[in-house]
Amino acid sequence: MEYVLLIYSNEQENAAMPQAEMQQWVGAFMAYTQALRDANILRASNRLRPASAATTVRISGGKTQTLDGPFAETREQLGGYYLIDVPDLDAALSWAARCPGAQRGSIEVRPVWAM
After folding, report:
1. Most Cβ neighbours (<10 Å): which of 47, 65, 66, 70?
2. Is residue 102 helix, strand or coil?
3. What are the chain's domains?
4. CA distances from residue 6 to 20, 28, 49, 59 in whole angstroms, order as listed
């Protein structure tokens, strides 16, 4: 079954991270990504641009509105994702707990609804 691991963290804290610490963190993500590949469960992954680069679209009264930035004001922003294919939720949760993003933010684990 496919699950998406949504990685949330505080963009301002990440931007203020010392360069050496940032390099370690990026290295941890690279190692984690390789572990997913080695386990043959990685289907897709991407890092997202900052929330300030987002555009929100909504339709109200039949009119399309676009808003700069994210719609919700939150402490943590969606920064990336992994799409994995594992046998069950327990396996997905186990992989989420290993994600470096869980140490600086949170990982939302959500099953994919195949269409």
Report:
1. 70
2. helix
3. 2-111 (3.30.70.1060)
4. 25, 17, 14, 26
What is the edge-to-edge ordering of all strands in the sheet holding 2-9? 42-47, 77-85, 2-9, 105-111
Q: What is the pLDDT of residues 25-74, one digit of tens each?
A: 999 999 999 999 999 999 999 999 998 898 888 899 999 999 887 666 67
Q: Are 82 and 46 in contact (CB under 8 A)?
A: no
Report which residue type is found at 19. Q
Of 20, 28, 7, 3, the closest CA to residue 101 belongs to 7
Nearest to 32 by CA among 19, 17, 47: 47
Of the CA atoms within 13 Å of residue 3, those in its CB half-sphere come to: 20
Output the six-digit token pair for 91. Answer: 């396996």
What span, in angstroms and rounded, lies between the C-alpha atoms of 115 and 108?
Answer: 21
